């Protein structure tokens, strides 16, 4: 299968499949505050993510690049990132490391947004040299290393050997000129996985990348002549993954959450569950594919407004104050937390 055809398949199928009701956020409720003692105008969206000060807790997560038709998508995303001060990741850069003619679909992002916070993206199979080249290609401020074992296994042409990944990630982390963050692509992460990354090899930023939005098992099954639908429900929801990460809460760790984030209230809940920043991928892809840039900016403004409504009604002026607010967790997510011994 041609790599650039695969990129286009991913975009098309990601737009046609998602699991938005299964992210776990509807199981999470805030305790309201009828006397919040605050003015909406004093709420601030500025957020610290590890070493980065972000204008907004929302970031545009890794999607695409590598095929000519993806240049326009990345350009639009980069303009949105610049106009609204969102950090942004590009999709896996492996294509451009192997074929220099594919570089423009990535470098456009730095060209449009010369001063923004950008994340490069590569798989754990990359060499140190490839990782450094990916960073340099877009003058990235950090590198995302994606973990996507189930997706690879469901891809007929995908990887089959996942041995030595922890050592490979450690090698990259030790040699790279920028911070390394490790992310899932929508199957979630367990406390055990996070512990290995954080405690064993010293990774300090993790994106739990949970189930509930773009579903790469479904996406790959749509591409297969013989689908394996029994894996469509694989993984942990975004909220379950955040609960898993909370087990490591007192470590030196910045948590990010992505996976089925639909609006500002989901962002607020993710921040309350311990995330420092919240990624959106599929919903933004849908917007840039179907709307003008102005309409996309209005959608981001609406998310920001929703976060500030949540902040005002809960009586907090800064996003870091979400952490530690009392929450009620119900339904399947509560069952999960109880069975896992997480309170
Ligand atoms: C992705 N995602 C992704 N992640 C990654 O680390 N490298 C990649 O190349 C891609 N490619 C990609 C393509 C497309 C079309 C989509 C929609 C997504 C995964 C993405 O960053 C995110 O983790 C998941 O999509 C879950 O977030 P949403 O889509 O539910 O908001």
In one word, what is the shape? globular
Q: Indicate the mean pLDDT.
A: 96
**Structure annotation, total helices:** 14
How many β-strand runs? 12
Strand content: 5-15%
Bound ligand species: ligand FNR
Distance between the termini: 46 Å
Helix-strand pattern: HEEEEHEHHEHEHHEHEHHEHEHHEH
Rg, Cα atoms, Å:
19 Å
Describe the structure.
By secondary structure, the protein is of the alpha/beta class. It has one domain (3-325): TIM Barrel, CATH 3.20.20. The chain is built from 14 helices and 12 strands. The chain has helices at 3-16, 70-84, 94-98, 104-112, 128-137, 149-154, 165-175, 191-200, 216-223, 238-246, 264-272, 282-290, 293-314, 331-340; strands at residues 28-30, 47-49, 52-54, 58-60, 87-89, 118-123, 142-147, 180-184, 205-207, 254-258, 277-280, 327-329. The strands form 3 sheets. The protein has an 8-stranded parallel β-barrel, surrounded by 7 helices. It has a two-stranded antiparallel ribbon with strand order 1-12. The longest helix has 22 residues, at 293-314. It starts with a helix and ends with a helix. The model has no long low-confidence stretch (mean pLDDT 96). Bound molecules: ligand FNR. Ligand FNR binds next to helix 1, strand 7 and helix 12.
């Amino acid at each position: 299968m041609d790599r650039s055809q695969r990129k286009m398949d991913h975009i098309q199928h990601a737009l046609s499949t998602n699991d938005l009701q299964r992210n776990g956020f509807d199981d999470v409720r805030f305790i309201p505050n009828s006397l919040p003692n605050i003015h909406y105008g004093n709420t601030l969206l500025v957020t610290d993510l590890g070493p980065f000060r972000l204008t907004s807790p929302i970031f545009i997560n890794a999607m695409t690049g590598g095929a000519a038709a993806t240049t326009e998508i990345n350009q639009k995303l980069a303009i949105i990132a610049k106009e609204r001060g969102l950090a942004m990741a590009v999709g896996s850069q492996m294509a451009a490391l192997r074929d220099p003619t594919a570089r423009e679909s990535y470098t456009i992002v730095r060209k449009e947004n010369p001063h923004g916070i950008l994340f490069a993206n590569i798989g754990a199979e990359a060499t140190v040299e490839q990782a450094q080249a990916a960073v340099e290609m877009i003058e990235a401020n950090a590198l995302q290393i994606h973990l996507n074992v189930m997706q690879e296994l469901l891809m007929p042409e995908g990887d089959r050997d996942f041995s030595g990944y922890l050592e490979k990630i450690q090698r990259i982390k030790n040699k790279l000129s920028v911070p390394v963050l490790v992310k899932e692509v929508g199957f979630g992460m367990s406390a055990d996985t996070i512990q290995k990354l954080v405690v064993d090899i010293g990774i300090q930023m993790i994106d739990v990348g949970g189930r509930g939005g773009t579903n790469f098992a479904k996406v790959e099954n749509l591409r297969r002549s013989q689908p394996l639908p029994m894996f469509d429900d694989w993984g942990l929801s975004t909220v379950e993954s955040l609960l898993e990460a909370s087990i490591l809460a007192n470590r030196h760790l910045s948590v990010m959450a992505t996976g089925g984030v639909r609006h500002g209230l989901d962002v607020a809940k993710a921040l309350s569950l311990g995330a420092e920043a919240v990624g959106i991928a599929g919903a933004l892809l849908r917007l840039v594919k179907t709307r003008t840039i102005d309409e996309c900016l209005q959608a981001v403004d609406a998310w920001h407004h929703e976060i500030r409504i949540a902040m005002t009604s809960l009586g907090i002026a800064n996003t870091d104050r979400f952490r530690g607010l009392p929450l009620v967790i119900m339904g399947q997510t509560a069952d999960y937390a109880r069975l896992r011994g997480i309170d």
